[in-house]
Amino acid sequence: MNNNFLWGGGFSAPQTEGIGTKKSLSVWDYWFMESVYLFEEGIYVRNDFIKHYEEDVAFAKQLNFNCFALSIQWTFLIPDGKTINLVAVEFYNKLIDKVIALGMKPIVSLFHFDMPLWLSEKGGWTTKESIVKFSYYAEKCFKLFGSRVHKWITFNEPMQDLLGQYVNSSHYPAENNIVKMLQSVVNIILAHKNAVNIFKTKKLKTKIGIGLNLEIAYPASDKLEDKEAANIANVWEHQLLLNAFIDNKIHYKLLEIAKKYKIELEITCEEEQSIKDWSIDFLNLIYKNSKIVKANLDHTEFNFGYDIINKNKKLINDDLFNSLMIIKNSYNNIETIVSIKGIGMADERLHANDSGVVEDQYRINYLKNQIIAVKKAIRSESNCQGLIILNYIDNWNWTKSYKERYGLISLDLKQNLRIPKKSFFWLKDFLD
Questions:
Q1: Residue 331 burial (10 A CB sphere; 0-12, 13-18, 19+)
Q2: Where residue 240 sits, what CATH number does that domain have?
Q3: How many domains is the chain partitioned into structurally?
């Protein structure tokens, strides 16, 4: 790892900011208010990052990070889809300035699952209007903050968001709808391409990419149907979008399943051409863990042909290394920054020592193994240029709320205190 290697941490705005000043509702705000019973202990976002951003960013500097990943809330910056919220502009300017003043490079994501409710009510990503509105939002972000941002990311894990919306019911509106799923995939691809086009036209002296999850699927057995199930899972959960954003083409499986279900995708010749243009400059590879899948041969209702039967949470494995080798060997060894979510543990605060410090040796072991995997990949000529530890302070985790804690720093929900864990001090010493 050279001196330019990026070490960092960061946050997702909808998981830390909550409902800020003059903000319109996102789908998550609405879903929580309408279906609070779906969320662990009925708890919503309590990090209050807008008030605590200076303290939280200072912790990143203490960890000797040289970059800081953040996201902008569409619903905060442009609440009605048309009018810029000057309160949000002031906040994000202060946040970016603070990151830079502390010697860290800002990496900014435009979208992290937080669809505005007003757009969702019109059909969300199923509509062409979503492409227009997102392009407008992206253009305003580039204009307002572009010159100071080190790297831009258009979407964070878009396929996981769509699977949650229209396949596994983990994201609002929690439907099972193959037509909406496929059209949304197409429209997100087009929205991303439009944003990259706008970015390139502005000739900003920085880079733009996308954040994609790469959870390798392994077959549950040596049976041909299980091997095919693993192949399909890998296509749908990452290959489809990797193809669109790095190879600039629509994966044949998208067209194949549309034909199978007699779905007419709305895409013009001009839009198809745009997919062939505007390549990303880098990939933000979001690594979580692998999965084991088996075939789903139930033909009575729509399914992708596989069921996930296990999330592989072994602390020692080669999954991250294998993921980086897939990018190297199959996707032109594009510049890659790895983001890791880490290990989520329930009831960690119950196991704090007498000084109030959580003894999370398991998290230290996990970090050691992922750093080893990155180093191994670089020695194998992976073009990996950075490692970001997501949610380095405990934050709200969608429907699981704060049940599972991922951070290097505990968040005391009663007093809103930040308390470093054992892993914080280990990483601080490691990066010193």
A1: middle
A2: 3.20.20.80
A3: 1
